[in-house]
Amino acid sequence: MKKEKLKPMLFSVIKKYSAKQFTTDVISGIIVAIIALPLSIALALASGVGPEEGLYTAIVAGFIISFLGGSRVQIAGPTAAFATIVAGIVAKNGYDGLMMATIIAGIILILMGLFKLGSLIKFIPYTITTGFTAGIAVTILIGQIKDFLGLTYPKGTVTIETVEKVEAIAANIGTINFQAVIVGVVCLLILVIWPRFFKKIPASLIAVIVGILMVKVVGLKVNTIGDLYQINGGLPKFHAPNFSWSLVRASFSNGFTIAILAAIESLLSAVVADGMIGSKHRSNMELIAQGAGNIGSVLFGGIPATGAIARTAANIKNGGRTPIAGMVHSVVLLLVLVVLMPYAALIPMPTIAAILFQVAYNMCQWRPFLKLCKTAPKSDIIVLVMTFVLTVVFDLVVAIEVGMIAACLLFMKRMSEESSVRGWTYVDPDIDPENDPDSIELRVIPKHVRVYEISGPMFFGDADALANITTKDFTKCLVIRMRSVPALDATAMRSLEMLYEDCRKKGVRLIFSHVNEQPMRTMEKDGFIDRVGKENFCPHIDDALELAAKVNADFT
Description:
This protein is mainly alpha-helical.
Protein backbone atom coordinates (compact mmCIF):
# COMPACT_ATOMS: atom_id res chain seq x y z
CA MET A 1 0.00 0.00 0.00
CA LYS A 2 1.40 3.39 -0.97
CA LYS A 3 2.48 5.49 1.99
CA GLU A 4 0.53 8.72 2.37
CA LYS A 5 2.56 11.92 2.09
CA LEU A 6 2.38 14.62 4.76
CA LYS A 7 2.26 17.28 2.07
CA PRO A 8 -0.50 19.82 1.34
CA MET A 9 -2.49 18.90 -1.75
CA LEU A 10 -2.06 22.45 -3.08
CA PHE A 11 1.68 21.90 -3.53
CA SER A 12 1.01 18.78 -5.62
CA VAL A 13 -1.72 20.09 -7.93
CA ILE A 14 -0.11 23.50 -8.53
CA LYS A 15 2.65 21.88 -10.62
CA LYS A 16 0.20 21.14 -13.44
CA TYR A 17 -2.01 24.18 -12.95
CA SER A 18 -3.45 25.92 -15.99
CA ALA A 19 -4.99 29.34 -16.64
CA LYS A 20 -8.26 27.65 -17.62
CA GLN A 21 -8.48 25.76 -14.34
CA PHE A 22 -7.62 28.94 -12.42
CA THR A 23 -10.55 30.74 -14.04
CA THR A 24 -12.88 27.86 -13.21
CA ASP A 25 -11.63 27.74 -9.61
CA VAL A 26 -12.16 31.49 -9.18
CA ILE A 27 -15.75 31.30 -10.49
CA SER A 28 -16.47 28.30 -8.27
CA GLY A 29 -14.97 30.07 -5.25
CA ILE A 30 -17.20 33.11 -5.81
CA ILE A 31 -20.33 30.96 -6.09
CA VAL A 32 -19.45 28.97 -2.97
CA ALA A 33 -18.83 32.24 -1.08
CA ILE A 34 -22.35 33.42 -2.00
CA ILE A 35 -23.72 30.12 -0.63
CA ALA A 36 -21.54 30.31 2.49
CA LEU A 37 -22.47 33.92 3.34
CA PRO A 38 -25.96 33.40 4.84
CA LEU A 39 -25.02 29.97 6.19
CA SER A 40 -22.00 31.31 8.06
CA ILE A 41 -24.07 34.07 9.64
CA ALA A 42 -26.91 31.69 10.54
CA LEU A 43 -24.62 29.06 12.04
CA ALA A 44 -22.76 31.69 14.07
CA LEU A 45 -26.04 32.89 15.59
CA ALA A 46 -27.07 29.30 16.30
CA SER A 47 -23.71 28.88 18.07
CA GLY A 48 -24.45 31.69 20.49
CA VAL A 49 -22.03 34.24 19.02
CA GLY A 50 -22.39 37.28 16.77
CA PRO A 51 -22.96 37.12 12.99
CA GLU A 52 -19.46 38.32 12.08
CA GLU A 53 -17.86 35.40 13.97
CA GLY A 54 -19.28 33.06 11.36
CA LEU A 55 -17.59 35.00 8.57
CA TYR A 56 -14.32 35.20 10.53
CA THR A 57 -14.42 31.40 10.70
CA ALA A 58 -15.11 30.89 7.00
CA ILE A 59 -12.40 33.40 6.08
CA VAL A 60 -9.55 32.35 8.37
CA ALA A 61 -10.19 28.63 8.84
CA GLY A 62 -11.44 28.26 5.26
CA PHE A 63 -8.24 29.73 3.82
CA ILE A 64 -5.83 27.84 6.09
CA ILE A 65 -7.56 24.49 5.58
CA SER A 66 -7.63 24.90 1.80
CA PHE A 67 -3.97 26.02 1.78
CA LEU A 68 -2.64 23.21 3.99
CA GLY A 69 -5.30 20.54 3.46
CA GLY A 70 -5.06 17.07 2.01
CA SER A 71 -8.13 17.37 -0.23
CA ARG A 72 -8.34 18.96 -3.66
CA VAL A 73 -11.81 20.42 -3.21
CA GLN A 74 -12.64 20.63 0.51
CA ILE A 75 -14.45 23.82 1.58
CA ALA A 76 -14.23 24.50 5.30
CA GLY A 77 -16.10 26.80 7.63
CA PRO A 78 -18.67 26.76 10.44
CA THR A 79 -21.02 23.77 10.30
CA ALA A 80 -24.23 22.75 12.02
CA ALA A 81 -22.50 19.88 13.82
CA PHE A 82 -20.68 22.37 16.07
CA ALA A 83 -23.60 24.73 16.72
CA THR A 84 -25.01 23.14 19.86
CA ILE A 85 -21.68 22.30 21.49
CA VAL A 86 -20.30 25.79 20.78
CA ALA A 87 -23.46 27.42 22.16
CA GLY A 88 -23.14 25.35 25.33
CA ILE A 89 -19.47 26.23 25.81
CA VAL A 90 -20.06 29.94 25.23
CA ALA A 91 -23.01 29.98 27.65
CA LYS A 92 -21.06 28.22 30.41
CA ASN A 93 -17.45 29.33 29.93
CA GLY A 94 -17.66 32.38 27.68
CA TYR A 95 -15.58 32.99 24.58
CA ASP A 96 -12.35 32.38 26.53
CA GLY A 97 -13.57 28.85 27.28
CA LEU A 98 -14.45 28.32 23.62
CA MET A 99 -11.07 29.64 22.51
CA MET A 100 -9.17 27.34 24.87
CA ALA A 101 -11.27 24.30 23.93
CA THR A 102 -10.76 24.99 20.21
CA ILE A 103 -7.00 25.48 20.62
CA ILE A 104 -6.82 22.17 22.50
CA ALA A 105 -8.85 20.58 19.70
CA GLY A 106 -6.48 22.05 17.12
CA ILE A 107 -3.44 20.64 18.90
CA ILE A 108 -5.08 17.21 19.15
CA LEU A 109 -5.93 17.27 15.43
CA ILE A 110 -2.37 18.24 14.48
CA LEU A 111 -0.95 15.46 16.65
CA MET A 112 -3.40 12.97 15.13
CA GLY A 113 -2.15 13.95 11.69
CA LEU A 114 1.54 13.87 12.63
CA PHE A 115 1.16 10.43 14.20
CA LYS A 116 -0.81 9.34 11.12
CA LEU A 117 -3.99 8.42 12.94
CA GLY A 118 -6.30 9.50 10.14
CA SER A 119 -7.37 5.94 9.45
CA LEU A 120 -8.49 5.43 13.08
CA ILE A 121 -11.60 7.55 12.51
CA LYS A 122 -13.14 4.52 10.80
CA PHE A 123 -13.40 2.92 14.24
CA ILE A 124 -16.11 5.40 15.26
CA PRO A 125 -19.28 3.30 14.76
CA TYR A 126 -21.74 4.41 12.10
CA THR A 127 -24.52 4.14 14.69
CA ILE A 128 -22.84 6.79 16.86
CA THR A 129 -22.27 9.26 14.01
CA THR A 130 -25.84 8.76 12.79
CA GLY A 131 -27.23 9.10 16.31
CA PHE A 132 -25.46 12.30 17.28
CA THR A 133 -25.98 13.85 13.83
CA ALA A 134 -29.74 13.31 14.13
CA GLY A 135 -29.60 14.61 17.70
CA ILE A 136 -27.76 17.76 16.62
CA ALA A 137 -30.39 18.35 13.93
CA VAL A 138 -33.17 18.14 16.52
CA THR A 139 -31.40 20.52 18.90
CA ILE A 140 -30.84 23.05 16.10
CA LEU A 141 -34.50 22.87 15.13
CA ILE A 142 -35.68 23.34 18.72
CA GLY A 143 -33.24 26.21 19.19
CA GLN A 144 -34.71 28.12 16.24
CA ILE A 145 -38.41 27.78 17.13
CA LYS A 146 -38.22 30.95 19.26
CA ASP A 147 -37.07 33.14 16.37
CA PHE A 148 -39.27 31.41 13.79
CA LEU A 149 -42.39 32.09 15.90
CA GLY A 150 -41.18 35.47 17.16
CA LEU A 151 -41.58 34.45 20.80
CA THR A 152 -40.65 36.80 23.65
CA TYR A 153 -39.08 35.41 26.83
CA PRO A 154 -39.11 37.16 30.22
CA LYS A 155 -35.80 38.67 31.29
CA GLY A 156 -33.56 36.14 33.01
CA THR A 157 -34.96 33.08 31.22
CA VAL A 158 -32.20 30.46 30.97
CA THR A 159 -32.18 28.50 27.71
CA ILE A 160 -28.80 26.80 27.54
CA GLU A 161 -29.86 23.15 27.45
CA THR A 162 -32.33 21.80 24.89
CA VAL A 163 -34.75 20.75 27.63
CA GLU A 164 -34.70 24.33 28.97
CA LYS A 165 -35.47 25.63 25.48
CA VAL A 166 -38.47 23.31 25.17
CA GLU A 167 -39.76 24.44 28.57
CA ALA A 168 -39.33 28.12 27.62
CA ILE A 169 -41.16 27.61 24.32
CA ALA A 170 -44.07 25.90 26.08
CA ALA A 171 -44.26 28.58 28.78
CA ASN A 172 -44.18 31.51 26.33
CA ILE A 173 -46.10 30.16 23.34
CA GLY A 174 -48.74 32.83 23.99
CA THR A 175 -46.30 35.56 22.86
CA ILE A 176 -46.21 34.28 19.27
CA ASN A 177 -45.71 36.97 16.61
CA PHE A 178 -47.73 35.97 13.55
CA GLN A 179 -45.89 38.48 11.36
CA ALA A 180 -42.65 36.65 12.21
CA VAL A 181 -44.36 33.35 11.33
CA ILE A 182 -45.34 34.78 7.93
CA VAL A 183 -41.76 35.85 7.19
CA GLY A 184 -40.41 32.49 8.36
CA VAL A 185 -42.89 30.42 6.34
CA VAL A 186 -42.33 32.45 3.15
CA CYS A 187 -38.56 32.10 3.47
CA LEU A 188 -38.86 28.38 4.21
CA LEU A 189 -41.01 27.87 1.11
CA ILE A 190 -38.40 29.70 -0.97
CA LEU A 191 -35.68 27.44 0.40
CA VAL A 192 -37.69 24.35 -0.54
CA ILE A 193 -39.17 25.39 -3.90
CA TRP A 194 -36.52 27.70 -5.46
CA PRO A 195 -33.85 25.00 -6.09
CA ARG A 196 -36.34 22.94 -8.13
CA PHE A 197 -36.48 25.64 -10.79
CA PHE A 198 -33.32 27.72 -10.37
CA LYS A 199 -30.11 25.90 -9.48
CA LYS A 200 -27.51 28.56 -10.23
CA ILE A 201 -28.59 31.17 -7.66
CA PRO A 202 -28.56 29.91 -4.04
CA ALA A 203 -32.01 29.73 -2.48
CA SER A 204 -30.68 31.00 0.85
CA LEU A 205 -29.58 34.27 -0.78
CA ILE A 206 -33.04 34.76 -2.31
CA ALA A 207 -34.66 33.98 1.07
CA VAL A 208 -32.51 36.65 2.73
CA ILE A 209 -33.41 39.27 0.11
CA VAL A 210 -37.14 38.47 0.29
CA GLY A 211 -37.05 38.49 4.10
CA ILE A 212 -35.41 41.94 4.13
CA LEU A 213 -37.97 43.28 1.65
CA MET A 214 -40.89 41.94 3.72
CA VAL A 215 -39.62 43.76 6.80
CA LYS A 216 -38.35 47.02 5.26
CA VAL A 217 -40.79 47.50 2.37
CA VAL A 218 -43.98 45.80 3.56
CA GLY A 219 -43.31 46.96 7.12
CA LEU A 220 -43.77 43.73 9.08
CA LYS A 221 -42.76 44.09 12.71
CA VAL A 222 -40.10 41.42 13.07
CA ASN A 223 -36.78 41.31 14.91
CA THR A 224 -33.71 41.59 12.68
CA ILE A 225 -30.08 40.73 13.37
CA GLY A 226 -29.40 44.44 13.97
CA ASP A 227 -32.10 44.55 16.67
CA LEU A 228 -30.40 41.81 18.69
CA TYR A 229 -26.70 42.03 17.81
CA GLN A 230 -24.11 44.73 17.27
CA ILE A 231 -22.66 44.40 13.78
CA ASN A 232 -18.90 44.79 13.27
CA GLY A 233 -17.79 44.98 9.66
CA GLY A 234 -14.07 45.41 10.28
CA LEU A 235 -11.26 43.01 9.55
CA PRO A 236 -10.75 40.08 11.92
CA LYS A 237 -8.57 41.10 14.87
CA PHE A 238 -6.07 38.95 16.71
CA HIS A 239 -7.25 37.69 20.11
CA ALA A 240 -4.59 36.45 22.51
CA PRO A 241 -5.82 33.44 24.49
CA ASN A 242 -6.39 33.86 28.22
CA PHE A 243 -4.20 31.00 29.43
CA SER A 244 -4.58 29.33 32.83
CA TRP A 245 -4.26 25.71 33.97
CA SER A 246 -7.72 25.77 35.50
CA LEU A 247 -9.19 26.85 32.15
CA VAL A 248 -7.19 24.15 30.33
CA ARG A 249 -8.50 21.47 32.69
CA ALA A 250 -12.06 22.74 32.37
CA SER A 251 -11.79 22.92 28.57
CA PHE A 252 -10.01 19.65 27.79
CA SER A 253 -13.14 17.48 27.55
CA ASN A 254 -14.80 19.98 25.20
CA GLY A 255 -11.60 20.25 23.19
CA PHE A 256 -11.41 16.50 22.76
CA THR A 257 -15.03 16.38 21.56
CA ILE A 258 -14.46 19.22 19.08
CA ALA A 259 -11.36 17.43 17.74
CA ILE A 260 -13.14 14.10 17.24
CA LEU A 261 -16.15 15.78 15.66
CA ALA A 262 -13.95 17.88 13.35
CA ALA A 263 -11.97 14.81 12.32
CA ILE A 264 -15.08 12.75 11.61
CA GLU A 265 -16.89 15.43 9.64
CA SER A 266 -13.88 16.67 7.67
CA LEU A 267 -12.71 13.20 6.64
CA LEU A 268 -16.27 12.14 5.82
CA SER A 269 -16.61 15.21 3.60
CA ALA A 270 -13.25 14.42 1.95
CA VAL A 271 -14.33 10.83 1.25
CA VAL A 272 -17.59 12.02 -0.32
CA ALA A 273 -15.62 14.51 -2.43
CA ASP A 274 -13.22 11.77 -3.56
CA GLY A 275 -16.15 9.78 -4.87
CA MET A 276 -17.44 12.77 -6.82
CA ILE A 277 -14.16 13.63 -8.60
CA GLY A 278 -12.40 10.23 -8.64
CA SER A 279 -9.53 11.42 -6.46
CA LYS A 280 -7.96 10.38 -3.14
CA HIS A 281 -7.40 12.75 -0.25
CA ARG A 282 -4.54 12.69 2.25
CA SER A 283 -6.31 12.10 5.55
CA ASN A 284 -3.39 12.85 7.86
CA MET A 285 -2.53 16.12 6.10
CA GLU A 286 -6.22 17.03 6.23
CA LEU A 287 -6.20 16.54 10.02
CA ILE A 288 -3.13 18.78 10.38
CA ALA A 289 -4.84 21.46 8.27
CA GLN A 290 -8.04 21.18 10.31
CA GLY A 291 -6.02 21.64 13.50
CA ALA A 292 -4.17 24.68 12.17
CA GLY A 293 -7.39 26.13 10.74
CA ASN A 294 -9.27 25.83 14.03
CA ILE A 295 -6.47 27.43 16.00
CA GLY A 296 -6.25 30.26 13.46
CA SER A 297 -10.02 30.71 13.52
CA VAL A 298 -10.33 31.38 17.26
CA LEU A 299 -7.18 33.50 17.37
CA PHE A 300 -8.98 35.86 14.99
CA GLY A 301 -12.37 35.82 16.69
CA GLY A 302 -13.95 32.83 14.95
CA ILE A 303 -15.45 29.54 16.13
CA PRO A 304 -14.62 25.86 15.40
CA ALA A 305 -14.62 24.86 11.74
CA THR A 306 -14.50 21.71 9.68
CA GLY A 307 -15.05 20.50 6.15
CA ALA A 308 -18.61 21.26 5.00
CA ILE A 309 -20.11 18.57 2.78
CA ALA A 310 -22.76 20.82 1.18
CA ARG A 311 -20.30 23.62 0.30
CA THR A 312 -17.70 21.10 -0.87
CA ALA A 313 -20.28 19.48 -3.17
CA ALA A 314 -21.25 22.91 -4.52
CA ASN A 315 -17.59 23.62 -5.25
CA ILE A 316 -17.27 20.37 -7.21
CA LYS A 317 -20.48 20.95 -9.19
CA ASN A 318 -19.23 24.39 -10.24
CA GLY A 319 -15.92 23.08 -11.54
CA GLY A 320 -13.59 23.61 -8.58
CA ARG A 321 -10.78 21.06 -8.70
CA THR A 322 -7.95 22.55 -6.65
CA PRO A 323 -7.57 24.21 -3.22
CA ILE A 324 -7.43 27.57 -5.03
CA ALA A 325 -11.26 27.54 -5.12
CA GLY A 326 -11.47 27.30 -1.32
CA MET A 327 -8.93 30.09 -0.91
CA VAL A 328 -10.87 32.33 -3.35
CA HIS A 329 -14.07 31.59 -1.38
CA SER A 330 -12.36 32.95 1.75
CA VAL A 331 -11.04 36.07 0.00
CA VAL A 332 -14.50 36.87 -1.41
CA LEU A 333 -16.05 36.53 2.05
CA LEU A 334 -13.37 38.87 3.41
CA LEU A 335 -14.42 41.50 0.83
CA VAL A 336 -18.06 40.99 1.78
CA LEU A 337 -17.19 41.39 5.46
CA VAL A 338 -15.49 44.72 4.86
CA VAL A 339 -17.94 46.17 2.31
CA LEU A 340 -21.39 44.62 2.89
CA MET A 341 -21.43 43.44 6.52
CA PRO A 342 -23.50 46.42 7.81
CA TYR A 343 -26.36 45.24 5.58
CA ALA A 344 -26.48 41.96 7.53
CA ALA A 345 -28.23 43.92 10.27
CA LEU A 346 -31.32 44.01 8.03
CA ILE A 347 -31.75 40.21 7.87
CA PRO A 348 -34.88 39.11 9.82
CA MET A 349 -34.40 36.51 12.54
CA PRO A 350 -37.21 34.27 11.14
CA THR A 351 -35.21 34.10 7.89
CA ILE A 352 -32.18 32.88 9.81
CA ALA A 353 -34.42 30.35 11.58
CA ALA A 354 -35.81 29.11 8.25
CA ILE A 355 -32.30 28.63 6.85
CA LEU A 356 -31.33 26.62 9.94
CA PHE A 357 -34.52 24.56 9.73
CA GLN A 358 -33.43 23.46 6.27
CA VAL A 359 -29.88 22.80 7.52
CA ALA A 360 -31.31 20.64 10.32
CA TYR A 361 -33.47 18.69 7.88
CA ASN A 362 -30.59 18.10 5.48
CA MET A 363 -28.32 16.78 8.23
CA CYS A 364 -30.85 14.75 10.25
CA GLN A 365 -30.43 11.57 8.13
CA TRP A 366 -33.88 10.34 9.13
CA ARG A 367 -33.93 7.72 6.37
CA PRO A 368 -30.67 6.01 7.46
CA PHE A 369 -31.85 6.37 11.08
CA LEU A 370 -35.11 4.51 10.41
CA LYS A 371 -33.36 1.92 8.27
CA LEU A 372 -30.94 1.15 11.10
CA CYS A 373 -33.83 0.84 13.55
CA LYS A 374 -35.48 -1.70 11.23
CA THR A 375 -32.49 -3.74 10.09
CA ALA A 376 -29.59 -3.38 12.56
CA PRO A 377 -28.83 -5.82 15.41
CA LYS A 378 -30.37 -4.92 18.77
CA SER A 379 -27.01 -3.83 20.20
CA ASP A 380 -26.52 -1.32 17.36
CA ILE A 381 -30.05 0.02 17.79
CA ILE A 382 -29.37 0.54 21.51
CA VAL A 383 -26.22 2.57 20.72
CA LEU A 384 -28.01 4.56 18.00
CA VAL A 385 -31.01 5.53 20.13
CA MET A 386 -28.89 6.13 23.24
CA THR A 387 -26.54 8.50 21.38
CA PHE A 388 -29.49 10.34 19.83
CA VAL A 389 -31.34 10.80 23.13
CA LEU A 390 -28.23 11.84 25.07
CA THR A 391 -27.34 14.42 22.39
CA VAL A 392 -30.78 16.00 22.67
CA VAL A 393 -31.30 15.75 26.43
CA PHE A 394 -27.72 16.45 27.58
CA ASP A 395 -25.01 17.36 25.07
CA LEU A 396 -22.66 15.97 22.47
CA VAL A 397 -19.84 15.36 24.95
CA VAL A 398 -21.95 13.01 27.05
CA ALA A 399 -23.44 11.38 23.94
CA ILE A 400 -20.09 10.51 22.34
CA GLU A 401 -18.52 9.33 25.59
CA VAL A 402 -21.43 7.12 26.65
CA GLY A 403 -22.08 5.99 23.07
CA MET A 404 -18.49 4.83 22.57
CA ILE A 405 -18.44 3.02 25.92
CA ALA A 406 -21.75 1.32 25.17
CA ALA A 407 -20.63 0.38 21.64
CA CYS A 408 -17.39 -1.15 22.95
CA LEU A 409 -19.15 -3.07 25.72
CA LEU A 410 -21.82 -4.42 23.39
CA PHE A 411 -19.20 -5.32 20.79
CA MET A 412 -17.21 -7.24 23.38
CA LYS A 413 -20.38 -9.01 24.50
CA ARG A 414 -21.12 -9.96 20.90
CA MET A 415 -17.57 -11.22 20.37
CA SER A 416 -17.71 -13.26 23.58
CA GLU A 417 -20.89 -14.88 22.33
CA GLU A 418 -19.09 -15.85 19.12
CA SER A 419 -16.26 -17.50 21.06
CA SER A 420 -16.65 -21.07 22.29
CA VAL A 421 -14.80 -23.87 24.01
CA ARG A 422 -16.15 -27.31 23.20
CA GLY A 423 -15.04 -30.85 23.67
CA TRP A 424 -14.68 -33.03 20.61
CA THR A 425 -17.44 -35.26 19.38
CA TYR A 426 -15.96 -38.07 17.41
CA VAL A 427 -18.68 -38.44 14.81
CA ASP A 428 -19.59 -35.31 12.89
CA PRO A 429 -22.15 -36.00 10.13
CA ASP A 430 -21.95 -32.43 8.80
CA ILE A 431 -18.33 -32.79 7.70
CA ASP A 432 -17.11 -34.87 4.81
CA PRO A 433 -13.74 -36.32 5.86
CA GLU A 434 -12.68 -36.72 2.25
CA ASN A 435 -12.95 -32.96 1.67
CA ASP A 436 -11.74 -31.74 5.06
CA PRO A 437 -8.22 -32.79 6.10
CA ASP A 438 -8.88 -31.31 9.55
CA SER A 439 -12.02 -33.43 10.06
CA ILE A 440 -12.27 -35.13 13.45
CA GLU A 441 -14.39 -37.92 12.05
CA LEU A 442 -12.97 -41.48 12.27
CA ARG A 443 -9.95 -40.39 14.29
CA VAL A 444 -8.92 -42.82 17.01
CA ILE A 445 -8.57 -41.03 20.35
CA PRO A 446 -7.03 -42.96 23.27
CA LYS A 447 -9.12 -43.13 26.42
CA HIS A 448 -6.56 -41.16 28.46
CA VAL A 449 -6.68 -38.20 26.00
CA ARG A 450 -9.26 -35.38 25.99
CA VAL A 451 -9.48 -32.87 23.14
CA TYR A 452 -11.03 -29.38 23.30
CA GLU A 453 -11.37 -26.93 20.42
CA ILE A 454 -11.44 -23.15 21.03
CA SER A 455 -13.10 -20.89 18.44
CA GLY A 456 -13.07 -17.12 18.21
CA PRO A 457 -10.85 -14.45 19.82
CA MET A 458 -9.78 -15.11 23.41
CA PHE A 459 -10.03 -11.88 25.43
CA PHE A 460 -11.14 -10.69 28.84
CA GLY A 461 -14.80 -10.78 27.78
CA ASP A 462 -14.86 -14.57 27.56
CA ALA A 463 -11.72 -15.75 29.34
CA ASP A 464 -13.84 -17.62 31.90
CA ALA A 465 -14.97 -19.95 29.10
CA LEU A 466 -11.82 -21.97 29.75
CA ALA A 467 -13.48 -23.06 32.99
CA ASN A 468 -15.60 -25.38 30.81
CA ILE A 469 -12.51 -27.52 30.18
CA THR A 470 -12.64 -30.55 32.48
CA THR A 471 -10.64 -33.75 32.86
CA LYS A 472 -11.48 -37.20 34.17
CA ASP A 473 -9.61 -39.23 36.75
CA PHE A 474 -8.11 -41.34 33.99
CA THR A 475 -7.16 -38.35 31.80
CA LYS A 476 -3.41 -38.12 31.29
CA CYS A 477 -3.25 -35.77 28.33
CA LEU A 478 -5.26 -32.67 27.39
CA VAL A 479 -5.09 -31.39 23.79
CA ILE A 480 -6.17 -27.78 23.10
CA ARG A 481 -6.85 -27.06 19.42
CA MET A 482 -6.55 -23.32 18.62
CA ARG A 483 -6.70 -23.12 14.82
CA SER A 484 -9.77 -20.80 15.05
CA VAL A 485 -8.29 -18.41 17.62
CA PRO A 486 -7.02 -15.27 15.82
CA ALA A 487 -6.09 -13.26 18.93
CA LEU A 488 -5.23 -13.71 22.60
CA ASP A 489 -5.07 -10.99 25.27
CA ALA A 490 -3.45 -10.82 28.72
CA THR A 491 -6.58 -11.89 30.62
CA ALA A 492 -7.05 -14.97 28.46
CA MET A 493 -3.32 -15.65 28.77
CA ARG A 494 -3.74 -15.69 32.55
CA SER A 495 -6.61 -18.18 32.20
CA LEU A 496 -4.37 -20.48 30.13
CA GLU A 497 -1.68 -20.24 32.82
CA MET A 498 -4.23 -21.27 35.44
CA LEU A 499 -5.32 -24.18 33.23
CA TYR A 500 -1.69 -25.28 32.89
CA GLU A 501 -1.15 -25.11 36.66
CA ASP A 502 -4.28 -27.18 37.23
CA CYS A 503 -3.10 -29.78 34.70
CA ARG A 504 0.38 -29.89 36.29
CA LYS A 505 -1.08 -30.56 39.73
CA LYS A 506 -3.26 -33.36 38.34
CA GLY A 507 -0.40 -34.86 36.36
CA VAL A 508 -2.05 -34.12 33.02
CA ARG A 509 0.15 -33.23 30.07
CA LEU A 510 -1.02 -30.13 28.17
CA ILE A 511 -0.55 -30.11 24.37
CA PHE A 512 -1.49 -27.29 21.97
CA SER A 513 -2.41 -27.69 18.31
CA HIS A 514 -2.22 -25.09 15.53
CA VAL A 515 -1.60 -21.94 17.59
CA ASN A 516 -1.82 -18.90 15.28
CA GLU A 517 0.77 -16.14 14.98
CA GLN A 518 -0.61 -13.52 17.40
CA PRO A 519 -1.48 -15.98 20.20
CA MET A 520 1.92 -17.63 19.75
CA ARG A 521 3.71 -14.27 20.11
CA THR A 522 1.71 -13.51 23.26
CA MET A 523 2.54 -16.91 24.74
CA GLU A 524 6.20 -16.54 23.88
CA LYS A 525 6.44 -13.05 25.38
CA ASP A 526 4.74 -14.31 28.53
CA GLY A 527 7.20 -17.21 28.87
CA PHE A 528 4.32 -19.66 28.67
CA ILE A 529 5.87 -21.70 25.85
CA ASP A 530 9.00 -22.35 27.88
CA ARG A 531 6.98 -23.42 30.92
CA VAL A 532 4.76 -25.80 28.94
CA GLY A 533 7.63 -26.97 26.73
CA LYS A 534 8.14 -26.20 23.04
CA GLU A 535 7.70 -29.89 22.23
CA ASN A 536 4.06 -29.60 23.37
CA PHE A 537 3.17 -27.11 20.61
CA CYS A 538 2.23 -28.96 17.42
CA PRO A 539 1.48 -27.48 13.98
CA HIS A 540 -1.41 -29.89 13.25
CA ILE A 541 -4.00 -31.85 15.19
CA ASP A 542 -2.64 -35.15 13.86
CA ASP A 543 0.78 -34.31 15.29
CA ALA A 544 -0.80 -33.41 18.63
CA LEU A 545 -2.80 -36.67 18.74
CA GLU A 546 0.26 -38.69 17.83
CA LEU A 547 2.20 -37.05 20.66
CA ALA A 548 -0.69 -37.58 23.08
CA ALA A 549 -0.95 -41.27 22.15
CA LYS A 550 2.61 -41.80 23.36
CA VAL A 551 1.74 -40.64 26.86
CA ASN A 552 1.52 -43.75 29.03
CA ALA A 553 -0.22 -44.28 32.32
CA ASP A 554 2.99 -43.63 34.26
CA PHE A 555 3.31 -40.06 32.86
CA THR A 556 3.78 -37.46 35.59
